[in-house]
Amino acid sequence: MTTTIRKLTMARAISEAIAQEMARDPNVLVWGEDVGVYGGIFGATQGLYQKFGQDRVIDTPISESAFIGAAIGASAEGLRPIVELMFVDFFGVAMDQIYNHLAKNHYMSGGSVTLPVVLMTAIGGGYSDAAQHSQTLYSLFAHVPGLKIVVPSNAYDAKGLMTTAIRDNNPVMYFFHKGLLGLGWMPSDDWAEVHVPEEAYTIPFGQAANIGEGTDISIITIGAMVPKASKVREQLRQEGISVEVLDLRTLVPLDKQAIIQTAKKTHRVLIVDEDYRSFGMSGEVAAILAEDALDYLECPVRRLAIPDVPIPYSRPLEQFTIPSTTRIADTVRAMMD
Amino acid sequence: MDAPVEMYRMMCLIRQYENRMAEVYAEGKSPLFSIAAGPVPGEMHLAAGQEPVAVGVIHHLREEDVVTAPHRPHHFAIAKHVDLRRMTAEIFGRTDGLSHGKGGHMHLFDPRVHFSCSGIVGASFPPAVGAALAFRHRGQDHVAVAFAGEGAANQGTFHESLNLAATWKAPVIFVIEDNHYAISVAKDTSTAIAKNSDRAGAYGIPGVFIRGNDVLAISEAASEAIARARAGKGPSLLEIETTRFFGHFQGDAEAYLHPGEKDTWRALDPIPRFRDSLFAQRLLTADQDVAIQQEVAELVEDAIAFARESPEPQPADALTDVFA
Ligand SMILES: Cc1ncc(C[n+]2csc(CCOP(=O)(O)OP(=O)(O)O)c2C)c(N)n1
Ligand SMILES: [Mg+2]
């Protein structure tokens, strides 16, 4: 048997997962701004309008509160909506529907109401789109109980996690990083463009992926920082430092065991995140380590993240705020001293 | 200069700026287009074709009057006399920019002339209501003008702000620029009624629709709305039909447009039309027009040169300005 390699961009992998689930289940609908003829500003819905028509792939007005809220009512009545919030940064105008309803209705109804909604959204900076178009913010949504949080780092995971998200009976927020999608019109990390099987498959939530084994130090990370950490791993191997890279893949549920396991193995942990430093993913992982793995650590946990400033526009300013491979490598070296 | 000629000059300045900005933005982005490359990276929303909206309204404003603008802000900023050099340096991300490079093209702030804008659709309405409240509270007869695209009129902030302004009788003018599209989504797909100006009726305030992208017609309607606001009679809503000459953003393939749609718009270019009417009325001579074109070209080149010469910020400057 020959296995043919079928490399897909992450954008193609996402739209393929959605197309397959739409073919499988007539209750799956897609709506959002420019998801129709345009195919989604970031290509996550490319080809769907042509395949499934305007009754199932719906361009909405710029009314995020209404169309995200509509997913709540629609899902309660049996649809399985996939709704696109063009950039996560636009959450503000719809936050009540997301935070107080989408996240909480299942619990407040004593489990009697289920909301199988996928709210997908673009995240990330690195191309000078400034403070209102460059954030990741997944930690903000992981903070409120009731939302599952998915952040794929490559095309294979993107497809499997999207399929799982659509089949899940809970609200799932699915965050795709603009710099991983293979868009052509902005820098994209080739690392994310990998073999993707044609048939539908699922990847369970709550299982981190060990991207590369190592023995000296662990980098725990997610999203677009995974390829960066992988590159640092290759680079430092030549310097005799053995780095393990853990891709969390989902924040809710969070694979605590994998976090503790890697700390027990390497005894040093660096957390790398493209979200704000304070009160977010990096703090949460550090807290888990403090609670459950402190005895195994040989040096203090360190974090690299956005240094609690809005993302600036100007290129040198923005590059200073987003963790770079150089900064990651330097931090690892310092921790090994 | 007569008022119509001054309006004409301002429209020419804006057009020249946007055309040059399209060229500057393209620098470093070929043969392969990358949004992150070149001296001006990031998104770029240009307003060529929409000059009459900005000029027809802002022409009536004073320095103290407030303008809040959306993600496509250059025409409003220029008409409001935002410092052209510092605005351009900001778009280049340089230290002499309005925000020393922290804001960029969608986030221009010039408090000296009471101008601000935002990249979030619908964000221009509420702050204008607040500014108007401040004026009324202090007994000043200044006004606030909120500009936004027709797409923004489906955002909750639009309806909430109209109601709030109406109940407060706030001196604010809401101006909707109807360029027919919100990115790829046509107005008739997204909006339940043909004219957003009719929505004014739901809040008991005047609503006027102005066709033709005609700066004098806009100026006349704006003059009335602004006088009304200054006289303490409360808010108004204007919707102005206009046309977008470039894509939604630079790099937009515009596959969603009907064939020939763009040509129809370009054929109705408001600037030559206005120039010809000024010629016909003998308000402008060909020589004066040449002088105007030369003057605005020099202003734009001066601003671009200023921006290019301004130093890049130091990386660690990213850490300042979070708090006052
Ligand atoms: C809250 C929010 N939703 C979506 C967007 C993305 N977006 C930016 S501009 C735009 C279209 C705006 O259309 P319109 O208001 O008509 O202004 P125009 O671009 O035509 O000038 C959209 C959807 C945004 N910036 N903010
Ligand atoms: Mg528009």
Automatic annotation (TrEMBL), chain A:
PANTHER family given in the database record: PYRUVATE DEHYDROGENASE E1 COMPONENT BETA SUBUNIT (PTHR43257), PYRUVATE DEHYDROGENASE E1 COMPONENT SUBUNIT BETA (PTHR43257:SF2)
Is Transcription one of the keywords? no
**Which cofactors are named for this entry?**
thiamine diphosphate
Q: Which UniProt keywords apply?
A: Oxidoreductase, Thiamine pyrophosphate
Q: What is this protein called?
A: Alpha-ketoacid dehydrogenase subunit beta
Please list the residue ranges annotated as the Transketolase-like pyrimidine-binding domain: 8-183
Could you name the domain of life of the organism this protein comes from? Bacteria
Pfam families in alphabetical order: Transket_pyr, Transketolase_C
State the taxonomy lineage: Bacteria, Bacillati, Bacillota, Clostridia, Eubacteriales
Tell me which SMART domains the record gives. Transket_pyr (SM00861)
TrEMBL record, chain B:
> What keywords are assigned to this protein?
Oxidoreductase, Pyruvate, Thiamine pyrophosphate
Domain Dehydrogenase E1 component: from-to ranges: 42-315
Stored InterPro entries: DH_E1 (IPR001017), PDH_E1_Alpha_Subunit (IPR050642), THDP-binding (IPR029061)
So which domain of life are we looking at? Bacteria
Q: Which CDD domains match?
A: TPP_E1_PDC_ADC_BCADC
Cofactor(s) needed, names only, are: thiamine diphosphate
Q: Would the keyword Nucleotide-binding be found if you checked this record's keyword annotation?
A: no
Write down the PANTHER family for this protein, in alphabetical order. Answer: PYRUVATE DEHYDROGENASE E1 COMPONENT SUBUNIT ALPHA, PYRUVATE DEHYDROGENASE E1 COMPONENT, ALPHA SUBUNIT BACTERIAL AND ORGANELLAR
Q: What is this protein called?
A: Pyruvate dehydrogenase (Acetyl-transferring) E1 component subunit alpha
Taxonomic path: Bacteria, Bacillati, Bacillota, Clostridia, Eubacteriales
